[in-house]
Amino acid sequence: MLKIYTDNIEERLRQIAGRAALDGDRRETKAVARIIKAVRKSGDRAVLKYTRRFDRVRLSSLRVDPLEIALAREQINRDLLQALRLAIKNIADYHLKQVPKSWLLPVGQKSRVGLRYSPLAVAGVYVPGGRAAYPSSLLMSVIPAKLAGVPRICVVTPPAPDGSVPSVLLAAAHELGIAEIYLCGGAQAVAALAYGTETIPRADLIVGPGNIYMTLAKKLLYGVVGFDKLAGPSDCLILADKTAQPELVAADLLAQSEHDPLASSLLITDDASLAKKVVREVERQIKRLSRREIIEKSLRTYGAIFVIKERSAFVRLADLVAPEHLQIMLKDAGAVAEQINNAGAIFMGAYSPVALGDYFAGPNHVLPTGGTSRFASPLGVDDFIKKTSLLEYSKSDLKLARKQIDILAKAEGLTAHASSVDARFGKKIATF
User: Fold this and answer.
1) Which residues of this protein are catalytic (predicted)?
2) Complete domains list, the chain, with CATH
């Protein structure tokens, strides 16, 4: 099930890590395009129709009653509510450090330039659902939006088979002050937020993970509305040496693989003995796991252990994979982490499992997948903020800059640019 490789390591890593983050076929893309067109044209009616078709739920209203949201925390146990509150605090404390401040820089004698940060007006948050509940996804998306100052945050989530939303999700929303939750998922939910309907407001940005249809909708609607990222299947790379505990390495590989049959769980080590022990631990631990079938498919297709001779290759191979999650179980984990350039999140040491970041520690778990950590970053406060340049020059300072502007404008052949400066000094507008 979990194979060990000692040769052609770079090639094998490229094949696994380079799998398409978005591999919808032409038929799926056309289907999503039809859904988008219908929602844009018919609004709520189209969203309700696709909810009946795909979720097999007949709804009379798309919006969850705010009173139901407010009462939800009475329906979950106190330990769960306390865990949610502690997670909210940790996530908020971490993201508070990301809040930027506008600034102005004096230039010349009486002039200034600067940058102003302002929140988006409406953020749409997609929370996967249907047969499961993911309050952690809600926390990770809503909290940075709140700290950015977004005044209106709207949540969309697929309904359960009985048309409801899990109480834990509603309770989490109430703790965050969210009163707008809409029952829809997939491409129709993305289209509804992108264009707006009679019930669902038009969003400036849509964030959150989803299935292939939701992600294809993001791709097709890019430019109509902003998006966080085109997320693919989740992935994890573990770097380990002889100091690592095989039972912990195995547990973390299994945890990653239970996400999805397409999830990738990789281990790179310089210890052949550790590799064999991890395989045995995986085979032992998997027997008691509830999502065994999913894990087996994931490990069989996208799981692997690579044994290398040169420990110095750890950093190079990790940057090649550019993982969403990088776990470093090495004696010098901190020193190695400082050398890594490409990773969505880095977990250092035996007591920093990915699950810690998924739920509780504070850093965002919405991360770049499929090798995109080469250029992308975790979801954060800045995703919900616009930047506006500010310029205010005095007449005397513009006069000092006039000659240089004239030279540069002429070099580009933009004569009207040069003339627009000349006009401010009562000079005859130059002709060229």
Assistant:
1) 324 (proton acceptor), 325 (proton acceptor)
2) 4-21+232-361 (3.40.50.1980), 26-227 (3.40.50.1980), 395-425 (no CATH)
